[in-house]
Write a structure and sequence with these properties.
The chain has two domains: about 5-315, no CATH class; about 365-470, no CATH class. Helices cover about 60% and strands about 5% of the residues. The chain is built from 19 helices and four strands. Strands 1-2-4-3 form a four-stranded mixed beta sheet, with helices on one face.
Amino acid sequence: MKSDIQRLLTALTFLLTAFLFSRTPIDADLWWHLRAGQEMWTQKSILLTDIFSYTRAGAPWVNAFWLSELLLYGLYSLRKYFALAAFVALLGALTFHVVSKNLKGNPFVDSFILLLAVVTAAPIWGPRPQILSFFLVALLDLWLIRSSRRQWVLIPFFALWANLHGGWIWGFLLLAAHTAGLFVQSFFQPEERIPLQRQALHLLGWTALSALAVGLNPNGLALWRLPFQQVNVSLQIQEWLSPDFHRVDFHPLLWMLFLLMLAAPFAKKPLNWPQVFKVLGFAYLTFVAQRNIALFAITAAPLLSEWIQAFIESLPRRESHPVKDLDPRLTSILNGTLIVVLSLAVLGNLFLISQPERVDKNYPVAAVQWMQTHHPEGRLFNSYNWGGYLLWTLPETPVFIDGRADLYGDDLLNQWHAVVNADKNALSLLDQWDVKTVLLEPDWPIIEVLKSNGWKVEFEDKQAVILIHP
């Protein structure tokens, strides 16, 4: 049974997590997910070809997010930005509440570790389908740590995951790390060798069947190509870069790593090899690409809790003196008041951060209004970061590119970079695609080149510039 203080800590940690994960819905990819969800809701069919760009029009699109896109569009239709922000905060709180089920140490220490994991994951937490994958990773890790029984559940689990987000590959990496850890652990526990190896082999077999279950989606087994396509084409995209530790918001990742190193000597023997392999694996992926940082936080928190608890138990025992408890009724009133106040703070913060003006200041609203009013003829060359936003706000205007890097591939990404950086073939590429309108941030080198080649500036402010071919 949980004590009153443990229940209070659980509630406060949940609410603090929701507060820390409250986000203004401004993620660049959110908009093309919303547009896809809107189209599917309107057409009553799943989008599997591109209808949003002119550069890839009609090309097969491996849409691993269709269920998530319908969910996001449904939330937007319900309460617009507030619903999206609330969903992000609530799912974050639920994800780390699941993680908390794996923490078995001192309640105060575990709350600290959990909040440290939350601020570690915070830089990449936003209104995108990938947060559903983070939640599913936490659920899968809980299942593996708790019992790993009823392994057949992996089949429907991965079949659902394959229709929500392409992050199902993280689930297989988690299973691989856990299985490898079981084999290694069996060599350090001779008395448990046969049961551990049998467990690992059973898990390996169900993992293979689950890999086939990924094909139970509208894209079929073509979905298996998606993770490898993204790795190839995304090297110049921010979230696929290594963490920049000059940014203060990435420092909690270092704190978790340092705490793990400091606590490791106190770990009980034999080591919890399945958990060690998961942490090492996702730490490696995090240093390769910052988008994996939440996975490290989710898998590292249980191991950190285990090792710090072992450190606490190694300390000399001190005689404790009983502390007189408050009146139970007064305690209930104080605890309830604290929870209500923090709940209102979370709701108030969600209301403030989801105001339309908070969203609009991050996007070229005035430029879009000009486009809506003047309807310039010809094809549009647009900012990569605004591609999804333009799909949402200018639905009748096909874009050159948007955030679906796996769809566009290396060739079109390289063409886009060649144009904005004013490479020697920039103007010929615009001619090749018959571009008549350019909408970009004002600081790209191509802007001055276009001006000097007769392109006319029709609109310009601090955020955007629109040029029209003469």
